[in-house]
Each structure stands twice: as C-alpha cells, then as structure tokens.
Amino acid sequence: MTSACILGCAGTQLNADERSLFASAEPFGMILFARNVEDPDQVRALVHDFRSIVGRTDAPVLIDQEGGRVQRLRPPHWPDFPPAEVFGKLYEQDRAVGIEAVRLGALLIAGELAALGINVDCLPVADLRHPDGHGIIGDRAYGADPDMVATLGGAAADGLVEGGVLPVMKHIPGHGRARADSHEALPVVETPLSELDRTDFESFRRLAHLPVAMTAHVVYTALDAERPATVSPVVVAETIRGRIGFDGLLLTDDLSMKALAGTLGNRTEASLAAGCEVALHCNGRIDEMREVVAASPRLAGEAARRAGAALGRLKSPGKTLNTAEARERFSAMIGA
To answer: Tens-digit pLDDT profile for the chain (336 aa)?
Structure first.
C-alpha cells in the first residue's frame, strides 16, 4: 500500500537507509534536485532503482524544471530554458507567439524528462508577479495579469502532457503577494478577500482542471489569520476546493521549509488533516523522512481516487518530435 508522501534522496544513488525506508513505506513518489543529478545514465538508473524498490513502474518521479533560476537539469547534459517572464513579454508583443513558445518550450522540457523516466514536472507557476512581492517568485511568474498567466500556464501544461509528463501547478492559492521567501520565513498576506479573489485566485481558477497542484506556505489573513494555507482546513476547503474549484490531487510544498513550525511529523499530520493529500519532503535528510513517513497514512479513499485520476492523465508522447527542428524554432521565437 502506497504512503501519502513524496520524498527526496541525499545523493546520486539510493543509499542503504533510503532503500530500506522506501521499501517499507512505499512512498507515492520521489522528487529530484540538482544534488541527485550527474548525467543522463545516472539519472535513469536512479529513477529505475526507485521504481523497482516501490514496485510501481508508473510511480511519480518529480522535478522542478521551470527554466530560468529553477531548473535542476542544466548544461552540459541538458539545455537551459528561459524563465516564465520571457514568455509573458512575448505574449504582450504577440499573443499567438507567446502561447506557442511556452507550449513548445514545455514540450521540449518534457522530452528531456521523459528520456530520463521523469514523469512529473512542477510547472506551471500560476502565481502572479506583484511589484512589492518577494523576488522568490519574480521572473518565475509569467506576469501580473491573471488572464495572461492562466493562458500561458495552460499552454505550458499542454506541452508537458503532449510530451508524456504530468504538470503540477504552483503555488495555490497564490504566492506572488508574499513579501517573504517561504523557504526562510512565514509570509503573511493581508490583502482583502475581494481583491485576492479577483486577481491571485483567478489564475488558479482558470487552471482548476489541471491534475495536480502544490500549496503555498503563506498566511492569508482574510482567509485564516493563524495558519498558512498548507495546514489550514479553512483555506483548503473554502478557497482551494471552494472558490477556486480545484478538484485534483493536492500536494504540500516542501514541508522542510522554514515557513512551517513544529516537527516534521507535526507538519505532516497538520497538512494532511487540513485536506492536502500528499506530503512533500525534499531535503533528503533520512531522519526527517522517517518522521514524515511515520505521520503519513496509506493513500486511500478520495485521496487515492484523485491520485489515480492524475496518473491516468499521463499518456505516451504524441507524434515523434523532431527535437533539433523544434529547438531551432523555439530559439528563434525567444530570440536566443
């Protein structure tokens, strides 16, 4: 039975402790970071090893491959991709070109990931860029207009799915207004509900059909003045499931981030009790992973249904992509 958690690992191969934990816990998935990446053959072997241990050939293997500052696969083995802001500027100049560029870029990313066995990309970022927001979002956002962000985010998701990779939209219900980096501190957003609903929530609402979303470790005082979204039953039920209408699989953002308080076990229990369905832990520390596993139930009921529905959206890549031609066309679009 699969545990309701996604875990990282420490290095480029699974060590004995990790192998033992993964075999006993059978986590829903694994997430990769730059520390886990050397070259294509090594990544493929790591992915295959994880799936062999948990006994599921379609077990999710996630990565953050957005482009710009946030991409775990980099030269010389993999190409760089531009940040989301580049596509937003293209869109403002020529809507059709911007949409096609972001779709094609995501399709190319999917090709790189699928060749490694990675089947989930934590993209698109549906947060809006706000002038007074912390730079942790910054150029990772397509822009400040909800319609543009949703349109480009949807095109990115389409490109990933076409290439055989599942998209994860983040960070629901919106991290763009946060004035702190949730990796380091707890952001508090005091914007009135009416304004949040008209702006930040709207881009997510337009993308509510996507199969997977990741929460924001942000307090919205208009929704729940005490608890960040990840551990707030009110935010999950009334805003994420209610106002926004998202009915897909809900992942936490990384539970080891400093925005959250308490032990890793406390954080896991609180997020799952709030209505998140899968706990995400990223730093690869075995002691913390054991706490997360101990607090994670088996994936069952509605959570299992949503997980199955999300994985059911995975499909084999469409028609064979002429990668060289596609890269040339993509480079011409973005002016590289």
So the answer is: 799 999 999 999 999 999 999 999 999 999 999 999 999 999 999 999 999 999 999 999 999 999 999 999 999 999 999 999 999 999 999 999 999 999 999 999 999 999 999 999 999 999 999 988 888 899 999 999 999 999 999 999 999 999 999 999 999 999 999 988 889 899 999 999 999 999 999 999 999 999 999 999 999 999 999 999 999 999 999 999 999 999 999 999 999 999 999 999 999 999 999 999 999 999 999 999 999 999 999 999 999 999 999 999 998 776 678 999 999 999 999 985
**SS3 state at 113:** helix
> Contact 275/233 with Cβ under 8 angstroms?
yes
Q: Residue 40: what are its φ and ψ, rounded to 5°?
A: -60, -45
**Is the CB of residue 151 less than 8 Å from the CB of residue 143?**
no
CA distances from 72 to 22, 62, 67, 152, 231 (A): 23, 11, 9, 22, 27
Task: Tell me the three state secondary structure of residue 136.
Answer: coil
Q: Which domains does the chain have, with CATH numbers?
A: 3-334 (3.20.20.300)
Read off the tokens for 61. 């293997």
Q: Could you list the active site residues?
A: 183, 253
